[in-house]
Design brief:
The complex is a heterotrimer of chains A (305), B (329) and C (399).
Chain A (H helix, E strand, L loop, with lengths): L19 E12 L2 E12 L3 E5 L6 H9 L6 E6 L2 E5 L11 H7 L1 E3 L12 H8 L8 H6 L2 H20 L15 H13 L5 E5 L7 H18 L2 E6 L2 H5 L4 E6 L2 E6 L1 H6 L1 H8 L3 H24 L1
Parallel strand pairs in A: 3-8, 3-9, 6-7, 7-8
Antiparallel strand pairs in A: 1-2, 1-4, 4-5, 9-10
Helix pairs in contact in A: 3-5, 3-6, 5-6
Chain B lengths: L4 H32 L6 H19 L7 H31 L8 H22 L4 E2 L6 H5 L2 H4 L1 H6 L9 H23 L1 H11 L1 H6 L4 H27 L1 E2 L3 H15 L5 H21 L12 H15 L14
Helix pairs in contact in B: 1-8, 1-11, 1-12, 1-13, 2-3, 2-4, 2-11, 2-12, 3-11, 8-9, 8-11, 9-11, 12-13, 12-14
Chain C lengths: L10 H40 L4 H23 L8 H15 L4 H4 L10 H23 L4 H21 L1 H4 L14 E2 L5 E2 L6 H23 L2 H11 L1 H6 L4 H27 L9 H14 L4 H21 L1 H11 L2 H5 L6 H15 L8 H6 L9 H11 L3
Helix pairs in contact in C: 1-8, 2-8, 2-11, 2-12, 2-13, 3-5, 3-6, 3-11, 5-11, 8-11, 9-11, 12-13, 12-16
The chains are: A alpha/beta (305), B mainly alpha (329), C mainly alpha (399).
Chain lengths: 305, 329, 399
């Protein structure tokens, strides 16, 4: 299947020819016997809005979790801004970074099923996002030195700025779990932005939104990219969402990359159409089952590792 | 100093007997953990209560070691059945009162409740039998305790001529109670519909529920089974050690939990092997190591076993046999 | 960058206003703390005026209040169930004994410099030693899931006192170490001075009160800081916290270290007050009693924890004894012999056990639930699924 992909790792065949900000080189992830992600190489051009799409169970979230450091790749390498983020032993000396180190390096993320700190206020949530950009330690906190006080004051101002930016300025003191679904999604974005990322990973950010909200949200992503000089990587299973705003789209199916290119190129691709529409219902069911299997295997391996 | 093989085997025998007791208790931890992922901290106290109940039953019958052998064995069986039923009821009752409503709570909530139950039961144990160790009712005749099968039984007598190694009737008694229970348990778990339901629930509670398995009943069975095994162990411990105390459950319980962890918690066979291992380590540390290591004595046993507990949990939380596909029950 | 709404107050103003309100709340709370502290500080006069003779029970009770505040950092703030907290209490108490008792192995060997053989420097050092032991015990446990972590801490809670019992050469075994230093006399104006001997119960009382207030002050500041927010975030969702840049291992280790450090305070004062330490003082039940205090008061809410500790401590040390008299009297009146002879002190375990079970069933957030914790311990919280717990092992498993 990989042969059908014309690209060579590190050399995007399509899209803007800028130095990539993120690059995965033949990344795989196995859960037990199942290969959730199979030698996927994608390249995210700097300053772009890129998307990874694919039907449910295609391995998108697994790929995403590998970039974010939640899972270690079983093979391959992930590079960010010229640096190796993680590398399995097949590509040289193995190297893995923890999620917090990855965020410190400049990649922030949101979660598919919102994972806010539910019992903290919106402001506190954003402040946690700034954790890696702050310095105060335990001793400083107990003595509450001038530097610590200043840092806290600055972080509050910055947090309120960010909340304003995502349109939640008035909710600074609301407890996260009491906010509406849409607001929670926005808060997750504000929290992610708080770490001053260069690359923002959004995992199905419009899931559960109606078409109007979705349109508003996608416009907001574009705005954000311009305002904050960001690169955005979206993960979606709904093709419609990404087509309008993406510069570059990669398509995964059954863990493999089956196509990539501009939205138009991808839309016209035979394999993509097949992957999405399926030959019959049986296939869809199989895909679902394999996803469940992958989740289960993942859990087992994790417990026993 | 030469290696003293006789003493080594002597403590091995003691260890195997104690270990089968530990295994019985460990099974209760593993059965419950396998299904609801709860460390039933009060399980050791259920075992203690089983021993107390057995002591009370024996005392009530008034049968002593002076009565006929048949009667003594009958009373032993009666006390065994009584302790098993009592402990099973108790265990199920604890679940019903304290854990059942916490099924969907964060997993620390039922654990804290279990610690609470353990304290309650210890205090009830003090009310029942006082806070000092008490001697078991004198059901077992003295010459049964000293009956050394290696010197009394025909063929063995020839083989072990001149040896000081002893295997007494009490050692055999422990095995005689433990083995059938283990066989019965594995028959139940692997050969009956209910056992299959249990294994299915342990693997995936939601899927089992979708397949029409009554989850609550399955959980209940785990508590019944675990409780009855602990009750049996209680009676055996009472007669084997010839004494009991309100806090015996704490030590046995934690040792048994260590055994369950060692064998991979949720793994039935693992719990048995772990139990026997812990029993042997226990006996060796109590009696044997002191011969070779100056200053070693039974006071270090706790440290050794808790160190095993910590080391296994930290470095091999899936147990010594832990493979990624450990079958949970 | 901000798309600022015109005419609205500036961002800095809003941050400021929000902060001011927060400060006001803090000050209000501080006022209550001061009022409470003053009332408590006056108690020794009442005690001597009415000849109550309760100071001897209240001082160890306040030691437990400090212990509960320390455990609250680990369990309440960071969400790590430690059921072997007694280990740190042992270390704090023996730290004081090792440093200041003339019978201690280290003093006899001449390894303790003279300036350390006094109460105050020894207390600071045992504070540090307890914190370090928190890191040592905490480090291997951090990758474990909640219930496994609890059992491992329990293991350490058994191993540490066992070690102190058995390592006779070092610790004098079950006999313990006596003649532990009390704080040096503090000279005041004229002939006045503050002495710490067994006759000066009130001075000990004030000493522990001051140390308790200092601890409270430090703990509340910690909670309202970058580290405090990190603890909260870890407690709520480890994966999200990690993905937001929180170093799980470091954050949890700080919780263990700081939580343990306060038991260094408590342990050394206790050792100095009692004058002798021996391993039997430190049993599993001590861990459970402290845990009970934290849970009763409301995990995470330090003021609640103080109240919880006072409730449990006063039952444990005072009421159980005092209430037995009226109970026995009633027993005599109604002619029920068991009741007439029953001592409530023998019900301690039963009552603590019941408290734990009932709290979990009826009020998992404790009597004074902290806003955040209340929801988290709610039995019907659907947020925590098995799947997430499993993922979590992978994130935090990478030490």
């Amino acid at each position: 299947m990989a042969a059908q992909v014309t690209s060579v790792p590190g050399q995007p065949t399509t899209g803007a020819r800028v130095e990539p900000i993120l690059e995965t080189r033949s990344v795989s992830r196995r859960f037990g016997g199942l290969v959730a992600v199979d030698q996927v190489s994608i390249v995210i051009p700097r300053g772009s809005i890129s998307s990874v799409i694919g039907p449910n169970g295609a391995g998108k979230t697994t790929l995403f979790n590998m970039i974010a450091g939640i899972y270690r790749p079983s093979a391959g390498e992930i590079r960010f801004d010229g640096d190796v983020l993680s590398r399995a032993s097949d590509m040289g000396r193995a190297r893995y970074r923890r999620p917090d180190q990855i965020m410190e390096a400049g990649i922030a993320r949101t979660f598919q099923n919102i994972r806010l700190f539910a019992n903290m206020t919106a402001l506190e949530n954003v402040q946690v996002g700034m954790h890696s950009r702050m310095k105060a330690g335990a001793v400083g906190a107990m003595l509450r030195t001038a530097a610590v006080r200043r840092e806290e004051a600055d972080s509050r101002i910055r947090a309120i700025e960010l909340l304003d930016y995502v349109g939640l300025g008035r909710h600074a003191e609301s407890t996260a779990k009491n906010m509406s679904y849409g607001d929670q999604r926005r808060l997750e974005i504000a929290r992610a932005l708080a770490s001053e990322p260069r690359l923002l990973l959004l995992d199905e950010p419009t899931a559960g939104m109606n078409p109007q909200e979705t349109a508003g949200m996608t416009r907001f992503f574009d705005q954000m990219r311009q305002d904050l000089n960001l690169t955005v990587l979206l993960i979606e299973h709904d093709m419609k969402v990404v087509m309008g705003i993406s510069d570059h789209v990669s398509v995964l199916d059954h863990g493999q990359k089956i196509a990539e290119g501009t939205p138009d190129e991808v839309r016209a691709n035979e394999q993509v159409i097949e992957a999405y529409l399926g030959k019959d219902a049986e296939q869809t069911a199989a895909a679902l089952a394999s996803r469940q299997q992958q989740v289960d295997d993942g859990a087992t391996e994790v417990t026993n590792s | 100093m030469d290696f003293n093989w006789t003493l080594f085997f002597q403590f091995l025998v003691i260890g195997l007997a104690t270990g089968s007791l530990v295994a019985l208790v460990a099974l209760g931890y593993t059965l419950v953990y396998g299904i609801i992922e709860l460390i039933n901290f009060a399980h050791g106290e259920v075992f203690m209560m089983g021993a107390f109940f057995a002591a009370t039953v024996i005392t009530l019958t008034g049968v002593t070691g002076d009565d006929s052998a048949g009667l003594i064995v009958a009373i032993m069986l009666l006390a065994l059945a009584g302790a098993m039923i009592f402990s099973a009821l108790l265990n199920r009752g604890i679940d019903w009162v304290a854990y059942k409503r916490l099924r969907n709570a964060p997993r620390l909530a039922p654990l804290i409740a279990a610690i609470g139950v353990s304290f309650i039961l210890q205090n009830l144990g003090i009310y029942w039998k006082g806070s000092n160790p008490f001697t078991a009712p004198s059901l077992i005749p003295f010459d049964w305790r000293t009956y050394n099968v290696l010197q009394e039984w025909p063929i063995l007598r020839d083989w072990f001529e001149g040896s000081t190694l002893r295997i007494t009737l009490m050692d055999l008694f422990v095995i005689a109670v433990t083995l059938p229970l283990l066989v019965g348990l594995s028959w139940f778990v692997y050969r009956t519909r209910l056992g299959t339901a249990m294994r299915a629930t342990a693997q995936d509670r939601e899927a089992a529920a979708l397949m029409g398995i009554d989850i609550n009943r399955t959980i209940g069975i785990a508590f019944w089974l675990g409780g009855s095994l602990a009750g049996a162990a209680g009676l055996v411990a009472l007669l084997y050690n010839n004494s009991a105390r309100f806090n015996m459950g704490f030590q046995y319980g934690l040792y048994a939990f260590t055994a369950a962890v060692l064998g991979g918690i949720g793994n039935l066979a693992g719990a048995v092997v772990g139990g026997v291992l812990i029993g042997v380590i226990w006996a060796m540390s109590d009696g044997f190591l002191g011969l070779y290591i100056e200053g070693w004595g039974s006071q270090w046993t706790n440290t050794v076993i808790f160190s095993i507990l910590v080391l296994v949990l930290v470095f091999r939380p899936s147990g010594i046999f832990g493979s990624p596909t450990t079958e949970k029950v | 960058m901000a798309v600022s709404a015109s005419a609205a107050p500036s961002v800095a103003d809003r941050a400021d206003r929000w902060f001011k309100r927060r400060q006001q709340e803090d000050q209000q709370r501080l006022r209550w703390v001061v009022i409470g502290a003053v009332i408590v500080a006056l108690y020794p006069f009442l005690d001597s005026a009415l000849d109550l003779g309760l100071l001897g029970s209240l001082i160890p009770m306040f030691v437990f209040v400090i212990l509960a505040m320390g455990l609250n950092i680990v369990v309440g703030y960071a969400g790590l169930l430690d059921i072997g907290y007694v280990a740190f209490f042992v270390i704090g108490a023996y730290g004081m004994a090792f440093l200041t008792s003339p019978n201690s192995y280290f003093v006899l060997k001449g390894w303790v410099p003279d300036f350390l053989q006094h109460f105050w420097p020894a207390m600071l050092l045992s504070w540090v030693v307890a914190a370090i032991s928190g890191v040592i015990i905490g480090a291997p446990t951090l990758r474990l899931r909640g219930d496994y972590l609890a059992i491992v801490t329990l293991g350490f809670g058994e191993i540490v006192p066992d070690f102190f019992t058995n390592a006779e050469g070092l610790t004098r075994g079950p006999r313990g170490i006596g003649q532990i230093a009390a704080p040096a006399t503090i000279p005041l104006w004229g002939d006045n001075e503050i002495k710490f001997s067994t006759q000066n119960q009130a001075n000990w009382f004030w000493l522990i009160l001051v140390v308790g207030l200092v601890s409270l002050f430090m703990i509340t500041r910690l909670y309202d800081s970058r580290l405090g927010r990190a603890w909260q975030s870890v407690r709520e969702d480890e994966i999200a916290a990690s993905s937001m840049g929180v170093n799980l291992v470091k954050t949890k280790l700080w919780a263990f270290a700081l939580g343990a450090s306060f038991s260094g305070f408590a342990g050394s004062i206790y050792a100095g007050y009692v004058g002798v330490v021996y391993p039997d003082q430190f049993q599993f039940s001590v861990s459970v009693i402290i845990l009970c205090m934290v849970i009763l008061g409301g995990l995470g809410n330090v003021y609640g924890v103080i109240v919880g500790a006072i409730i449990i401590g006063s039952f444990d040390r005072i009421l159980a004894e005092k209430l037995s008299t009226p109970l026995n009297w009633i027993g005599e009146q109604i002619g029920w012999e068991a009741m007439a002879e029953h001592s409530l002190t023998s019900d301690r375990f039963l009552i603590f056990g019941l408290a734990l079970v009932l709290l979990m069933l009826l009020r998992p957030g404790g009597l004074f639930p902290q806003r955040a914790r209340a929801a988290e311990m709610d039995p019907h919280d659907p947020d925590i699924t098995m799947q997430e717990r499993e993922e979590l092992a992978d994130v935090s498993g990478r030490v």
